[in-house]
Structures
1.
Amino acid sequence: MASQQSRCYSVLSVPSSRTRPSGVTIDDAFLLEAKNTQKRKLSQKRNTLPFQVSISGNLCPWPTYTTSQTILRNVKPCSDGYQKRTSSWQQEPFGIAKPRYLEQLENYLRKELLLVGLSKDSAQELKLQPYREIFEFFIEDFKTYKPLLCSIKNAYEVMLAHQRERIRALEPLKAKLVTVNEDCNERILAMRAEERHEISMLKKEKMTLLKLIDKKNEEKISLQSEVSKLRKNLAEEYLNYLSERDARKILIADLNELRYQREDMSLAQSPGIWGEDPVKLTLALKMTRQDLTRTQMELNTMKANFGDVVPRRDFEMQQKTNKDLQEQLDSLRADYEEVRKEHEILLQLHMSTLKERDQFFFELQEIQRTSTPRPDWTKCEDVVAGGPERWQMLAEGKNSDQLVDVLLEEIGEGLLREKDFFPGLGYGESVPSFLRFEGLVENKKPTKKDVVNLLKDAWKERLTQEQKEKFPDFFFNFLERRFGPSDAIAWAYTIFENIKLFHSSEVMSQFYAVLMGKRSESVYVNQKETIAQLLKEMTNADSQKEGMLTMEQFSTVLKSTFPLKKEEKILELMEAGGWHPNSDNADFLNYRALFLEDEEGQSEPFVQKLWEQYVDEKDEYLQELKQELGIELYSDVTLPKLRGALMSIDSSLDKQTLNTYISQAFQLPVSELPEEGDGKEEGIVVRLQTALERLQVIDVRRRGPREQEPAS
């Protein structure tokens, strides 16, 4: 078949440049060579036809003279439409037949298309060749229209060649465009990463400069206080110097006067002592006194100008003293900060110790008040249905309080079995919507296993549909769909009495809490999603797919799934899963067995420990919130204060989760919450105890790690 295709469609080969005449382009040469070759091939193929009917330029009027004849369309030879058409042509009446030449062309076209279609790698250019040959047949047979048909064919061939050249020219540009696009994306990502790094560095530098500014401001305040003190001392010293200067001037004047008088007296008593002329001596004395007066004036001027100047030696001594005092002050400040931090830590430890002491004291008083002799639980073996074996199974691993609950459940189950009817609760507003009925309601008396399976089916249907209706309404509608409208109320009362009685059953207790509005559906849904995610992580860690993990792998999966849990919490989960501190870490664990449930819906200790830790973490989170607010339970708290306390204890809270918590605490829709900084926030208050009870209903958990406490 490939040889036939190469034989029939070799006309697509491009002529060589050696045989092309000068002045003719590649496209023209290609068309010319293709035309000549095609003519030779067509003449050969025309000779292969069984017979030839030439119409010599005359057109047949078919199918204008009939209405039932169909025209050949572009149908693939191997398709169903092609087979239907061939069968329909075979069934056409012989009275209205196609022209024989048209039938020959159609048969030839079908054969050629069939040959082309059978090759898997046939190109679109190859599929056009049969149609070119049919068109050449028309050109050769219709002499009258041959020039027009040739010009049409040449125009299409030139256009196809031109489009092929454009496609070949644009292929490198397309590859280059992809490369340039990838380079630009890489540059954009690199620039964004560089900008993020630069922004982080600028933020760090900003924080460093702010700290430096605060330190400089403190130093400035300290220096200003020192300068004011020194100015005060300088003013006092200046006044002392002024009084001393005036006294010295008076004393010097008195001394000069006494000296002058003494000299005059000595000169008057013994004029011959000097052996010189008294007039000359008097003149010299007069000039000396004038010099003395001028010198005294200069001395007074110098003292007046520089009397307040501190000597350099004193200045350096004061500067050195000031530096030493500043160093001592910095050292004392650092010591004071350390002591203050230690004092705060000790105060916190003291407060926590006081609270623990008060709690232990209260527990001690309660135990002392309510302490009674430990009951002999073996007496219940003969009372409980099933005998000692069932009682040992029920009492295994339970304390006295839990054993009382088990005993009450056994007694209540027997009483519940004896009841044939339940009294209706009426249509009051306090009655749940699924229990509103007056009269007697039949007790369906299902087994505990049947109730658990029914509740599981209800949860499955609830999780698969959109949660538009309230949970009590959904529960009643579910019973109507399951048992019909006539028995729905009877099953509602029966299931309600059972789940209210069996507190030890996880499925019943959780369903009862959600049904009565004591717990949100999101708590149950998120717990199931957490367990499913943990099982998925363990399955991914099991590379051998054997259902076994080492204890090291088990610990790694727990830490990666619960990054906020403390180390002791992870150890508790590992011990609940079957690990012991003294055992070898290389022991293998059947992790799939940790997620199994018994017939009554009871989970394994590992899943129970997960739920217990979730409850403890929620209580701890709400206790931290209460301590952060620092008010009593009966006090009111405003919306901004509660928002600030939540962000303080858990800075990783996103805006949506924070609004959900605040909406639940204040019982306001999220859309009606005021914006932060709005003056209306202060007017929205709620009692702290009420807010904590409302938050206890929904899924409240820590979203980020705790802040590091300051080291003592």
2.
Amino acid sequence: MGVDQTEPGMPADPVGRRVSCDGERATVRYVGPVPPTAGLWLGVEWDNSERGKHDGSHEGVHYFTCRNPKGGSFVRPAKVSFGVDFLTALQQVYQIRALQQVYIRSRSSSGPQGLRRSPHFVSSHRAICLAAAAHTIGLKTPYFSLAAAQVSVLAADFESRTSVLFDFCEVNGPGAEGEIRKTTPRVAWLGLSGTLLSCWEDMAAIAQQLDQLDSLQLSDNRLRLPSDPSAHCQAFCNLKVLALNRCDLTWPQILECAPMWPQLEDLCVEDNNITELQRPVGVLQSLKSLNVSCNPVEQRSVLSLAALPRLEQLKLMKIGLSDIRFDDAAPGSQTALFPALKNLNLDDNNISEWRVVDELAKLPCLVQFSCSGNRLVSSDGNPKTVTQILIAKLGQLVLLNRNILRPEDRRGAELDYIKMFGEEWLKAGGASQLSTQFASQHPRYQSLIDKYGAPEEGELKKQEPFALKNQLLKIYFVFPDDAGRKPIEKKLPASMVVQKVKGLLYRLLKVPAADLKLTYTCNKKVGTEFEIDSDLKTLQFYSIEDGDQVLVRWS
């Protein structure tokens, strides 16, 4: 229902519309009075819930609903912006850039104080500052005449433009019908992140006028789902690349929208609300690249993506993954799942079992793999040995952790792997009658023997622990919740279990071990905090190295 417009600039149907207020984005959920105050109020739900004050209630009256109990506020209409249409935004952005160029020329002509940096490399935010500065100092008339001429040239140039960037501009819709097609008909790459678009229908109305659109950046938006997604497939019929990062979407919502993108090849949905993946049925079948990183994904649901017939690249960074299994294939065999997958990124997960790597070796086309920031360790505690084992276990790799593998790298890793586990191989029966257990733990070992020959007994590497002096780690215990407590430095054996570490801390702090919560940070991943979640695992298991910090908290 429409609202009596008593405020200038407010649309007739503001509920559900996106607004900007003090640099933050929000969605209007209510329009009307909020007694006992006088006048009109907008009830908004903030994208950033920390910006809000309540759940849509005031003095016991519930005016609107927020998903977050502190995600709502009431604001006056004069405080918010409902944005502008596509072409108005286009004119504003490029007029600012034109004025920016004029200002730079005026400064350059005034002497050594002139700016030397090309205007093409200055951001639109910088351009706004320059425009404001130009207004403040008062450019002379000839320069303003030049600016007007430049704006005219830029307007004429819109017709040949192939890319338009409106990230975090207040675009709210297409504007007059057909005008985008007349003004920017050749645009193929469009950036509309963090805009004031409210629904997919408005986005489709823009895309419908861009026949060559193949790449679309829509991150940091909150688009209302379409009532009939199939009705918009023509608008996005040429779309190949789509980014929907930080849009608060679930996987079912993405699948609901997917009929709009019949030719999509590259989909990025990082940092959304994706918890469980379902199999795409009849949609996303042309997808070649998918990025689901930084989502709390249920790991068993990852296999729901396995039937995508053309998927070549899959990014699953920071999803908490610790296990994956392809039960359709025996160790050393190839799985029928992920038939086209060439590039897999599992950085910053919780993988600690080598069995997971053996499962990945079943992928028939895997040639690029990244798994830095996980918990894989070797018996000698050396990260370089971990790399050698990865190369040996994954026989088709050409790129590991973004490093190209040369033939000599592979040969050296595989020969070392043979020597490393040669003694176990002999004890397990060797070439005569190899045990099933050894074969399942080392699926490639026999093929490497066939390739290089069996190891001589003198070549075998004994799996012996380091001498104690080499196992001692210098660890700094810090107390983030107790600012007055100084860090404690200790030298501890890498083989020490977490339970004993907590016993040591109990003696130092007089805090029961059961109340202690431990995490650690390392110099290699500054800013990342890793959980220590098992009292029975060793410091070496968690890849804690000399000089690392263990963060100690207690309840």
